[in-house]
Design a protein that fits this description.
With about 400 residues, the chain is of the alpha/beta class. About 35% of the residues lie in helices and about 15% in strands.
Length: about 400
C-alpha cells in the first residue's frame, strides 16, 4: 500500500497547485470568486486525489472485469478534468508573457483559455459517446491480378471488438452485426482481438455474433489479446483451457477460425485463397504466427491471396517489398488509431508506421489495409477514430494513382 500512496502524494500536490492557480485567476478576474476560491481549490483536489487513491489501490486480481471497467471510467473522467484545466493554465500563462517586459497581459486571453478548456473537456466526453457510432467505409479495391470471376465480390472487414469492454451489454455489438448484414457481403473477415483478457468476456456475445452471415463464409484470426497473456492464470493448463474455449466459441458461432491455416474460395473455374496467421507482432507481443505453415503452397505462385494478420507490423516486416511473397492484399487491425483521429491527425504514427487505411509498398505489389477497430481498450472513448466496418468491392483492373500511401522499407 505504501507505493500507491507515495505515488498519490505528488499528484495531490499537483492537483492543489492546478486548482489554486485556476481559482486565483477567478479571484483576480471575477469579484464573486474572492470568498470561495481557496476552499474550493483544496476540497476539489482532495476529493479527486481520494478518488485516485481508490483507483490505484483497487484490488486487481479479484476485482473481475466489472471492477476494471469502473477503474477505466474513473481514470478517464479524472484525466478529462485535469487535462482541460491544464489547457487553461497553459494559455493563461502564455497571456502573461508580455508582463516580463512590464507590459499588459494579452487581452481576452482568459476567455480564450476558458473556451479551449471547455472545448477540450467536451471533446473528451464526446469521445465516450462516439464509441457507439459506426463508420462504414466502402472501398473499390482494384488489382489486375484478380481472377475475372471475383470481379465485384464484396468483403466486409471488422476488427478489435474487445467484447469485455461492453460487459454484458450487447446493444452496440448487435447494432454492428445488423449493419454488416445489411451490406450483404459475400465474405466477412474478423482480424483479431475479440476479448480483452479471457474467454468469459465473449460469452454474452456468442449468440449475437452468430447472426453474422455471408454466402462465402465468415473467417477470423486471433489477436494479441486473445491468448490470455494479459491475465494472471493459476497454471499453464488453465491458460490453455481458456484458449480452447475461445477457439470453440468462435467455431460455434459459425466462424472459420484460421490458426495458421488457409481456405480456397472458388467461383466458377477461378479461385482465391484466404490465409489466416496467428498473431505476429512487434515487441512486446509474442510471435504465434507462421506464414509458411498457414499456406502450404509456394508463396510466389500466381494464385490471388488475401492475408489476415492482426498486427500490421507483420506486413511491414515480412510482406512489403518481398518478391518471394506474392500476397496481393493484407488485412489487419490492432492499432485502433490509438482511439484518437481527427481526420489524419492522430498520435498513432508515433507508434505505428501503418496505422489506418490503405498502404502499398514501393513496387505497389503488396497492399495493406488497417482497420481501426470497433471496440476500445484502455480508455472508454474514441475521439474521432469512429468504430469501423470496411466494405471492399474487389475489382479487376489497374490501380488508380494515389489509391494508397506508399510505404518504403526506409521508413523503418
Amino acid at each position: 500500500m505504501r507505493l500507491p500512496l507515495l505515488l498519490v502524494l505528488p499528484l495531490l500536490i499537483v492537483n492543489i497547485l492546478i486548482d489554486w492557480y485556476i481559482c486565483r485567476a477567478v479571484k483576480l478576474r471575477c469579484r464573486s470568486g474572492r470568498r470561495f476560491w481557496l476552499p474550493f481549490a483544496i476540497s476539489t483536489s482532495v476529493i479527486l486525489a481520494a478518488a485516485f487513491i481508490l483507483i490505484i489501490c483497487w484490488p486487481k486480481k479479484g476485482s473481475g472485469d466489472a471492477g476494471l471497467e469502473t477503474i477505466m471510467w474513473m481514470l478517464y473522467i479524472y484525466s478529462s478534468i485535469y487535462v482541460s484545466k491544464f489547457i487553461f493554465i497553459v494559455f493563461d500563462l502564455i497571456a502573461k508573457i508580455p508582463q516580463l517586459w512590464h507590459k499588459k497581459r494579452i487581452r481576452g486571453s482568459a476567455a480564450v483559455a476558458g473556451v479551449l478548456s471547455v472545448a477540450t473537456f467536451s471533446l473528451m466526453m464526446w469521445g465516450t459517446y462516439n464509441t457507439r457510432n459506426i463508420d462504414i467505409r466502402q472501398i473499390d479495391y482494384f488489382n489486375p491480378a484478380l481472377p475475372t470471376a471475383f470481379d465485384g465480390m464484396t468483403i466486409a472487414h471488422i476488427s478489435d471488438l474487445h467484447t469485455g469492454t461492453f460487459g454484458s451489454d450487447t446493444t452496440f455489438v448487435s447494432a454492428l452485426v445488423d449493419s454488416i448484414n445489411a451490406l450483404h457481403p459475400d465474405i466477412i473477415v474478423f482480424t483479431g482481438d475479440i476479448v480483452n483478457r479471457h474467454t468469459s468476456e465473449l460469452e454474452p456475445f456468442v449468440s449475437v455474433l452468430s447472426r453474422l452471415r455471408a454466402p462465402q463464409g465468415v473467417y477470423s484470426i486471433l489477436g494479441n489479446h486473445d491468448y490470455g497473456d494479459y491475465y494472471h492464470w493459476n497454471s499453464p493448463a488453465d491458460k490453455q483451457a481458456n484458449q480452447e474455449r475461445l477457439n470453440n466459441y468462435e467455431r460455434a458461432m459459425g466462424w472459420q477460425l484460421l490458426n495458421n491455416e488457409s481456405r480456397t474460395i472458388k467461383a466458377g473455374s477461378d479461385s482465391i485463397v484466404i490465409i489466416g496467421v496467428e498473431n505476429i507482432g512487434d515487441f512486446p507481443f509474442p510471435r504465434y504466427g507462421n506464414l509458411e505453415k498457414a499456406y502450404a503452397g509456394d508463396l510466389q505462385n500466381p494464385v490471388f491471396k488475401i492475408l489476415l494478420s492482426h498486427n500490421p507490423a507483420h506486413w511491414t516486416e515480412d510482406i512489403a517489398q518481398s518478391p518471394d511473397k506474392n500476397i496481393a492484399l493484407t488485412l489487419s487491425g490492432h492499432t485502433h488509431a490509438m482511439q484518437f483521429a481527427l481526420g489524419r491527425v492522430s498520435p498513432a504514427p508515433l507508434r505505428y508506421k501503418t496505422w489506418g487505411g490503405m498502404y502499398t509498398d514501393a513496387d505497389e505489389a503488396h497492399d495493406l489495409y488497417v482497420n481501426i477497430g470497433a471496440g476500445e481498450v484502455g480508455i472508454p472513448a474514441r475521439i474521432g477514430a469512429t468504430p469501423e466496418v470496411t466494405l471492399f468491392t474487389l475489382r479487376k483492373g489497374e490501380k488508380t494513382p494515389g489509391y494508397a500511401r506508399i510505404y518504403n522499407l526506409s521508413d523503418n
